[in-house]
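Known limitations

Files may contain more than one protein. Parsers should not assume a single record per file. Below, a two-record file is shown to illustrate correct handling: read the sequence, read the token line, then continue until end of file.
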Amino acid sequence: MMTSSRHDEHDEHGQPDHPDQPAQRHRTITTPAGRRIHLVEQGTGPLVLLIHGFPEGWYSWRRQLPALAEAGYRAVALDVIGYGRSSKPADPAAYRMVELVEDNAAVVAALGERRAVVVGHDWGATIAANTALLRPDVFRAVGLLSVPYAPRGGPRPSEIFAQMGGDEEFYVSYFQEPGRAEGEIEPDVRGWLAGFYAALSADTMPAPDAPSPYFVPRDGGRLRDRFPADRIPSWLTEADLDVYAAEFERTGTTGALNRYRAMDRDWEDLAPVDGAPIPQPSLFIGGARDASMTWLAGAIEAFPTTLPALRATHILDGVGHWLQQERPDEVNKLIIDWLATLTTLAD
């Protein structure tokens, strides 16, 4: 049985920005699998589901919710399993992609809808892509921010990441070892988050000739040793940082990190859709200063094959990884313009 609880309120972090905008509403739904998912919605109209990445939460869409609502959409940003007020299962297998896809479909059903557009950033982009791929009956279009769609294929992910970095260890491998990243992050969650956000933001990232913040020395070093320690990005206020830090201080970081620890299971689960394209209308937005544009350049070049209904690709100059927060107005316009090209979501 699927249940939900709801209370209407102005968001505790100061939304909406204008008194004539509809209020944001917090809700927690329980999926048929018994997983509780917290979400925030604003506006009425066709449903647009927003999926965040690491290490964020629904709050990373705070600038998109009111803009989409004003444009005539029902915008819903959720806390992915392992984050915020959503369930935090102990078993990393609970964070498998197929489970997250079913969570997203359950959210749509719990909201009384049959169809939705799904938009994701970072890990959320990969979740959104697979959601569209596996549940085309529910998700009619997909928007991807920062991380392009790369179909399942090739060797086991842990084997690929273990080969990256040479004398240093790639951050994904570092995150995949249970307890290791937690030991670095949790003694100073706020400081670690500030450094991580700064390391991947266009206006604060390390110089090109500085040691890469994506790699860890194999002699016991830490990721944060390469983060900027004297600045935070312009898009991140102290109040914003307080919101993120408070959530992870309350929940811990294991749930968020378990997404990385489920990647080999994803590789096994998704074998039936190896190499499959996503046929629904799609959108990609990336930041020109995001390392993903270099690492995953081949995936972008393959879009004519992997995203045959791609409507537009936008690479934003002077933008890093957190693009919907670094450049919210521009990203909002691109998403809303793309949504306007889609046919009705209602049958």
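...continuing to the second record:
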Amino acid sequence: MTLLAFGINHKTAPVKIRERVAFCPEKLPEALQELSAHNRVSEVAILSTCNRTELYCGLDDSDPEAVLSWFRKFHGLDAREVDPYIYAHPDRMAVRHMLRVASGLDSLVLGEPQILGQMKSAYSTAHDAGTIGRKLNRLFQHTFLVAKQVRTDTAIGASPVSVAFAAVNLSRQIYSNLSEHTALLIGAGETIELVARHLHENGIRQIVVANRTVEKAHALAAEFGGYAIALNEIPAHLAEADIVISSTGSQLPILGKGMVESAVKARKHRPVLMVDIAVPRDIESEVGELDDIYLYTVDDLQEIIDEGLRSRQEAAQQAEEIIETQVAHFMGWMRSLQAVATIRSYRDRSEAMRDEVVEHAMRQLRAGHDTEEVITELARQLTNKLTHEPCVQMKQAGYEGRLELLDTARELFNLKIPEDNL
């Protein structure tokens, strides 16, 4: 089986492409089962975040076209629209890619920890959908262990840099004193939780959390002394917000130009910072055309994020060395699977020989033969049966001058032969 990791990310595709190939959580099980039903695909998992959409597959052959074709068809795209942004990594490269992604080495923010949780969710979803087999299961478990080792053995996560942190850092640059301002956070997932935590630590005056599930929003807001509202209540509260940061899984924009324009008028044109870190986008791009609105997307955060990368470069190099070693370990396990059928066949034949000589010995014992003689004969027959075929093959190899086979036999059977006998 061939391993394949392919997809697009923030390095290869702009947000307008990434949002078109994102898998919404509700459709993931359907997508997984549809792809795994393909006769060339034996295993599959899908990772879909705001910065990347990736498929991890086990294929019955080395041709990735079947998966690429399904990917285009599922999202209603033709090859010209999406292929220029796609990368595809087979086998060893696929393993290295997954380890790097889980360790935060391929993230928008070097070393950010959120991706590991997202990868665990991708594994869990695929496992529940029944599309994870032996090899991908082993690869995911290996990936999680390596990511943990990288976190433990390097300082890759020492600096508090993330998309959430970058959004708050941007807020601090625009509003020097956050204690005088109110933030509206749209969504209640892990990213928004991190944003709320960073804002709270930086002394924000008020946090308002808007979410489709108000109970979840209330639980998050209460932790930081804020209050919660439903999404349909946003128009009534938007004018209160000096900072709006949004990260939801909505397939449609939540804030439109008209709604924001009304809020700006109610604020008497006091400026508003809006940071949209969702894919697909939560805030219509036309909102950025309004006066007094400063709209940033995840792509705009790159420059801010770069400032926090320097301290992680040395740690990243150490992480790369760990990953190279662990890639070799996993590929060794993959190669060992090729020996399984041979080992099983050898054991089955040996056990058949054993059963044959044991049955013969049991008949002799029932006939009253001497026990010691029966045991001795059993040992002789079993030894002859087990060694006969290898000896025949080694003699033939010597006759034909196939000395490499004799060297292999000595290694296989761990034979120590004096040099003067060689």
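Parsers that stop after the first record will miss the second one. For reference, the second record is described as follows. The first strand starts at residue 2 and ends at 9.
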